[in-house]
Amino acid sequence: MTQQFDVVVIGAGPGGYVAAIKAAQLGLKTACIEKYQDKQGKVALGGTCLNVGCIPSKALLDSSWKYHEALSGFKVHGIEAKGVTMDVPAMVGRKDVIVKNLTGGVATLFKANGVTLLEGQARLLANKQVEITALDGSVSVVAAENVILAVGSVPSTIPPAPVDQDVIVDSTGALDFQAVPKKLCVIGAGVIGLELGSVWARLGAEVTVLEALDKFLPAADEQVAKEAYKTLSKQGLNIRMGARVTGTEIKKKQVTVSFVDAEGDQSLTFDKLIVAVGRRPITNELLAVDSGVKLDERGFIFVDDHCKTSAPGVYAIGDVVRGPMLAHKASEEGIMVAERIAGHKAQMNYDLIPSVIYTHPEIAWVGKSEQTLKTEGVAVNVGVFPFAASGRAMAANDTGGFVKVIADAETDRVLGVHVIGPGAAELVQQGAIGMEFGTSAEDIGMMVFSHPTLSEALHEAALAVNGHAIHIANRKKR
């Protein structure tokens, strides 16, 4: 007899597992299907984010930054640290423990909320029937009143650099190096490429980043992107823009990368190559021909503003649909869909999804950039406050970067908050909270911020929008 559920979620990543938990909390009989296996061959929950993405990369970023600080940042504090070394296998092992704890935590949450976990490869059939091929090859079918597709994405590849997970790796392979490569190449100067490049550069690798685009971090505010390029270059990342990779050749455990840039045809040899050219949705084995769900030419699932697909009762969230491929976006879509299935009128504000790059300094933003607003013909006032003028940042010896607040020149409503510097992700979230409630720059400027804190930089940037900053000289209005 076919098992019946109110909701079947395909995929247990940050979109899927959150949707499943929320649906169960709302009283819906819920199942979640997952196929991903860990290094021990056991099904692991949490998707890319917990297993081979957000969490493990942050673990390595934090470990490598602590090592970097011990080598070159302690002396200013009067701390002498001699003979500091990095045990790379231990660092990677710590990362694996964190991943195991978190994925196990999701399984515990499923049990606590009454979510049924089904293991195997899922395929959506007609009429909201879901076929599951278990790890042992057996096939079963479950039926649902509603189906949520949350299967996520995998790293994209490019023909000139085929991944072998030995010399040429993707973002997953780059998390498991057992030694620091002497010379490392990263293809792609996006979020993943810069984060992974930073990890291994801090540990002593000579890192070259090849980016095909001519513009660095085009999604970021231009002023922030310019500062980021300057800072990361000073840290040792050799970022080469307009460099299109044309081929690779592996000899004696080294890879020669051929590329074309403004100077013509070039080639360089490295010990390791990381391919970080974006991600693509995993929809190739997800849908039967008669499922009723439509894809675009890139394999993304068509959905409306509430994540409904072209098939009645079938929804899709996260990396398989339009919008930024961000874990927090997927999670909030999952909650919205579960709420709507339960009969509530949940909405999601796609205009205020924060973006973060976890380099050091962190780079984060929410809302629109100054160049976007100018292109749209919106007159704005801008306030900028450097961390070099922040007492808290000085005390922490972390004064690089700034906070930038952009407000509508007519209404003073905040339209964007952009930060490069210490605690950027947390400061941008403060901006997002205010923007969700329609804050003006004056509103933020009138609030009391504790002293000394990094968040005072947001306060001062908001004051600076209208020429009222206290701890820096204000720009004279023309």
From TrEMBL:
InterPro entries: Class-I_Pyr_Nuc-Dis_Oxidored (IPR050151), FAD/NAD-bd_sf (IPR036188), FAD/NAD-binding_dom (IPR023753), FAD/NAD-linked_Rdtase_dimer_sf (IPR016156), Lipoamide_DH (IPR006258), Pyr_nuc-diS_OxRdtase (IPR001100), Pyr_nucl-diS_OxRdtase_dimer (IPR004099), Pyr_OxRdtase_I_AS (IPR012999)
Domain Pyridine nucleotide-disulphide oxidoreductase dimerisation per the UniProt entry, residue ranges: 353-462
EC number(s) recorded for this UniProt protein: 1.8.1.4
Binding locations of NAD(+): G188, A189, G190, V191, I192, G193, L194, E195, E211, G278
Localisation per UniProt entry: Cytoplasm
Pfam families: Pyr_redox_2, Pyr_redox_dim
Coiled-coil ranges per UniProt: none
Disulfide feature: C49-C54
Keyword Metal-binding: no
Catalytic reactions of this protein: N(6)-[(R)-dihydrolipoyl]-L-lysyl-[protein] + NAD(+) = N(6)-[(R)-lipoyl]-L-lysyl-[protein] + NADH + H(+)
UniProt-listed SUPFAM superfamilies: FAD/NAD(P)-binding domain, FAD/NAD-linked reductases, dimerisation (C-terminal) domain
Main location (coarse class): cytoplasm
Protein name (database record): Dihydrolipoyl dehydrogenase
Annotated organism of origin: Pseudomonas pohangensis
